[in-house]
Design brief:
disordered C terminus, globular, alpha/beta, 42% helix, 23 strands, 7-stranded parallel beta sheet
Length: 718
């Protein structure tokens, strides 16, 4: 008998045969969703064959304490052995080429080609029984080289999740029982339709509500289409969130899809969206997965909280709300912990919210990925925004050699003749490119009792805010404030705005408030930027149509804009050809054509060269594929109850719930500022990788974290 796992609580043994059969059964079930069940079964049967080595059996007995005095003789690494067996058994036709990396990397991660080839030169160790080839594998028909690396990665996901789940079933049976038990698509649709019917019954017959009902009508009609690419272009205030989930659930039911995954660029929108969906479907059916989510309430982990924690590992939930970063970086990762969830994207509806924020320098691999997900893995994609970018056809940048073909087509749900932007017009734009000083723009803002000003950099936010009169509610918002502080500030402003009083409310913010935050001011000022950003800012003006036509003022500040994307987007807007209604689809199409002309490379990290070839470099590609070029370090500040959490960390060490709670008090600071604060003796490393600023004077109640010269030429990065 060969041992696969030893449960030390009662010294129970799981044989290797039991484990491999269990993994094979699950992996086949997962891979069957895209027609490769037999591949999943073979991977499961081969993945731990290396545990038959005498050296591994000695190792597991010693490390577990089952036989602490046993001597380990030789190399006990086992993952590579399955790959050697696959090469021997499935070499004609060479089906092993899709399995080698998966098997040898099921613990460590997918390898780069060169390292994988070196490992395949090893010999099958003594003691490993060569199995009889029982499964006939049919090599999948793929249409494009860009499909192969995703097929390998999703097969890898099937094996990794099956391996984790079968191991958990034996080693932690109580935890394993917490999985499953969620509602299906039909049950969710019943909940949503009941909610919408009640909402309609309670709502007034306002023009805004009429438009929202019209949008829902189009979504119901177009949900009958097959698996494809769709877009939902709805102006701010048109009820995009509820309409998109209505379309998604009806479309999923129509096409036999299993779940809805909503990817959003900003955590502020995720939190807001997840809260709305939980009200409709229940906490137990909506998974919110991002770095700042705090899944523990009152320090006690309920059974539902534990289920949510487990579900972040593999997305086995009917509705998942996550970030673009989490979604796409997982799709290009080589690590088992990141890739484990990927097989649960198969047969899903993927909603990409605020799709115009997808980074241009990664647009080619992102669009190629979406095309593969649709064709190979039966994923329908819905792009939702008020500012629809160009993602189909030939996309041409400033370098003709770097142009690429986008998606073949995208089906728009809302017809042009609906004229939604005209029906929902509550704001006009007043654009003045005359450069102003900080004093001049502050004086303009101070004329209004209730006004929101959005700028591009933290420096500009600080300078304008410091010049406003200190009267009424006058607040500053930037990422130098911790997530909890930002959330509480926004909630306080929302409440104040809803009061029918004469309280003065003036807010100066970076772009964090620009998209998806349901806040409603009668006047908005927006520093010059791209048209998409300007329209997002205008969406915070007269959002609910409570006032007559209001104005969003677009202004310029003296001095240059920061080099890079902000300047490119602003120049694209200023060079638009023609006399447009700024809110129309035609204006947005022209804006993105102008913007594309300023982009040198839509694949700056050369992902295509790393992965669209026979010699795939999985590890190197994962290293380079990062949607946010984040050269910052996270620090915990001393605010509210963060000190007690730090004390708990010192005394009890790491835990999932504690680190999620500390994330609410964390701020990402640039490397130079981190170095300065360290030299000043301000930063303390509490434990490995957790840094803490205990001095309360470093955190201002309205400005957030204070650092020397921090505001100088520092661009706000979401």
């Amino acid at each position: 008998m060969t041992i696969s796992h030893i449960r030390t609580s009662d010294w129970a043994l799981q044989t290797n045969e039991e484990h491999q059969e269990g993994v094979a059964l699950l992996a086949a079930l997962f891979a069957d969703e895209f027609g490769m069940a037999e591949w999943g079964r073979v991977l499961g049967l081969l993945h731990d064959k290396g545990k038959e080595q005498i050296s591994f059996q000695q190792h597991i007995k010693r490390e577990s304490g089952y036989d602490p005095n046993i001597k380990v003789e030789g190399d006990y690494n086992h993952a590579y052995v399955g790959a050697l067996l696959a090469k021997k058994l499935y070499n004609n036709p060479p089906c092993h080429v899709l399995m080698d990396n998966i098997l040898m990397g099921h613990h460590r991660g997918l390898y780069d080609y060169g390292e994988m080839i070196e490992i395949l030169k090893k010999n099958i160790p003594e003691g490993v029984e060569i199995p009889t080839k029982t499964d006939k594998l049919n090599f999948p028909h793929l249409q494009a080289p860009k499909d192969i690396h995703h097929l390998i990665r999703i097969l890898y996901s099937c094996l990794v999740d099956a391996d984790y789940l079968d191991t958990e079933r034996f080693m932690q049976p109580k935890q394993n029982k917490l999985r499953g038990g969620k509602a299906n698509i039909d049950e969710l649709l019943v909940k949503l339709e009941a909610y919408l019917a009640e909402l309609k019954r309670k709502s007034s017959e306002s023009e805004v509500n009429k438009v929202r009902n019209e949008v829902q009508h189009y979504c119901v009609k177009e949900s009958e289409g097959g698996i494809d690419f769709y877009s939902l272009t709805v102006p701010t205030g048109g009820g995009k969130t509820l309409s998109s989930i209505l379309w998604a659930l009806r479309h999923a039911k129509r096409n036999g899809l299993r779940r809805v995954i909503i990817a959003i660029p900003y955590t502020s929108i995720i939190t807001q969206t997840a809260a709305v969906l939980r009200d409709i479907f229940g906490y137990e059916n909506v998974l919110e997965h991002h770095s700042n989510v705090n899944v523990v309430e009152g320090g006690i982990e309920s059974e539902t909280t534990k289920r949510q924690k487990l579900a972040t590992e593999n997305w086995d939930y009917p509705i998942v709300v996550t970030t673009n970063v989490q979604l796409f970086e997982s799709l290009f990762s080589n690590k088992p912990s990141d890739c484990r969830k990927l097989h649960n994207i198969v047969k899903s509806v993927l909603i990409l919210d605020e799709v115009q924020t997808l980074p241009m320098e990664f647009l080619q691999p992102i669009v190629d990925t979406l095309d593969t997900l649709k064709r190979v893995f039966s994923v329908s994609v819905l792009f939702t925004t008020a500012s629809q970018p160009i993602l189909s056809g030939r996309i041409q940048g400033s370098n003709p050699l770097k142009a690429f073909n986008g998606l073949p087509h995208i089906r728009e749900i809302i017809p042009l003749e609906a004229h939604l932007h005209a029906k929902l017009r509550r704001v006009e734009l007043n654009i003045d490119d005359t450069p102003l000083t900080y004093d001049e723009i502050a004086e303009k803002i101070a004329r209004h009792p209730r006004v929101l000003c959005i700028v591009n950099t933290r420096k500009d936010a600080k300078e304008i805010f410091s010049r406003l009169p200190n009267e009424g509610i006058c607040l500053h918002l930037s990422r130098m404030m911790c997530p909890k502080h930002i959330r509480e500030t926004i909630d306080m402003v929302k409440s104040a705005l809803q009061e029918n009083s004469n309280t003065i409310i003036r807010i100066v913010s970076t772009q964090l408030i620009e998209a998806g935050v349901d806040i409603d001011f009668p006047v908005v000022y927006r520093q010059e930027a791209g048209l998409d950003s300007i329209l997002q800012a205008a969406g915070r003006c007269n959002r609910e149509g409570r006032f007559p036509l209001c104005t969003t003022y677009v202004f310029a500040l003296k001095g240059r804009l920061p080099y890079g994307f902000i300047s490119q987007t602003n120049n694209a807007r200023k060079n638009m050809l023609g006399n447009y209604d700024w809110f129309s689809r035609e204006a947005m199409a022209e804006y993105f054509k102008q913007l594309h002309c300023r982009i040198a490379d839509f694949d700056k990290s050369q992902i295509k060269q790393l992965l669209y070839a026979s010699e795939m470099q999985f590890e190197e590609a994962a290293h380079h594929f990062h949607l946010i070029d984040d050269s910052t370090i996270s620090v915990v500040i001393n605010w509210e109850d963060s000190a007690s959490l730090i004390k708990c960390l010192r005394e009890e060490g790491f835990s999932y719930s504690l680190m999620k709670s500390l994330a609410q008090y964390s701020i990402n600071v640039r490397n130079n500022d981190f170095k300065k604060l360290t030299e000043m003796g301000t930063i303390e490393e509490v434990t490995d990788g957790v840094f803490y600023i205990s001095d309360k004077q470093c955190y201002h109640e309205r400005m957030g974290l204070l650092t020397d010269n921090h505001w100088l030429e520092e661009t706000f990065i979401l």
